[in-house]
Design a protein that fits this description.
The protein has 230 residues and is mainly α. 79% of the residues lie in helices and 0% in strands. It has a domain of 158 residues: MetI-like (MetI-like fold).
């Protein structure tokens, strides 16, 4: 695990950064999906609520690995079909990073929608009624009352979703992305010393989890400053 010409330390660190990158990208994509699904589940439209419930039920019930395979092979089949229309032949692989981030985003979006929905329901309805009685428009109500409290109440749950996303990033190795688990498999196969590589991967995942968890707690403490908590 050294950093010399024959060491694997640099490759493992780069792979760890790739794991963080794909996890962060998937988390942000999931935040977009989760916000839209949360809005749909809280809307007055029965159709929107039905579609949102179906999305959350399917994505939470289907194994994450299956979602990755469906997006990767489905995207590859689509790209191959488009390439064939322009005279190309053969298999066109979907981009692994984009596919992995999208798969993580789809799955985490289902969980984030529940976190955001619970956070919204934690806001006292009297505050919303007071804002409307004061003459606040929807956007002003969102900016001054809803969003600040929504973020405050959602942060603890979002930290749990992030830890889940970080672990899900290890599954992206099945489609060929060289992240931490894939690099560990390559190194262990080349040196025939799998124990050292997987122990190193464990320590790196724990380090990433600890640092990011500390960051979430700092943000949460700042968000709750001045608020008495039970």
């Amino acid at each position: 695990m050294g950093f010399g010409p024959e060491g694997w330390g640099g490759l493992m660190l780069r792979a760890a950064l790739m794991s963080v990158a794909v996890a962060a990208s998937g988390f942000l994509i999931g935040m977009v999906f989760g916000s839209l699904v949360c809005w749909a589940r809280l809307s007055r439209s029965a159709t929107a609520r039905l579609l949102a419930d179906a999305y959350a039920t399917v994505l939470r019930g289907v194994p994450d690995l299956l979602v990755i395979y469906l997006l990767y092979f489905g995207g590859s089949a689509l790209l191959s079909h488009v390439a064939a229309m322009f005279g190309s032949s053969g298999f066109v692989s979907a981009p692994t990073f984009a596919t992995g981030a999208l798969a993580i985003g789809c799955v985490s979006g289902a969980y984030q929608s529940e976190v955001l929905r619970g956070a919204f329901l934690s806001i006292q309805t009297g505050q919303l009624e007071a804002g409307r009685a004061y003459g606040m428009k929807t956007m002003l109500l969102l900016r001054r009352i809803i969003v600040p409290q929504l973020v405050r109440y959602a942060l603890p749950g979002m930290e749990n979703v992030w830890q889940l996303v970080l672990k899900e990033s290890a599954l992206i190795s099945v489609i060929g992305l060289v992240e931490l688990m894939r690099q560990s498999a390559i190194g262990s196969g080349s040196t025939h010393q799998p124990f050292y590589f997987y122990v190193t991967a464990t320590l790196l995942f724990l380090a990433i989890s600890s640092v990011t968890g500390w960051g979430f707690r700092r943000v949460e403490a700042r968000a709750f400053r001045g608020v008495r908590r039970a």
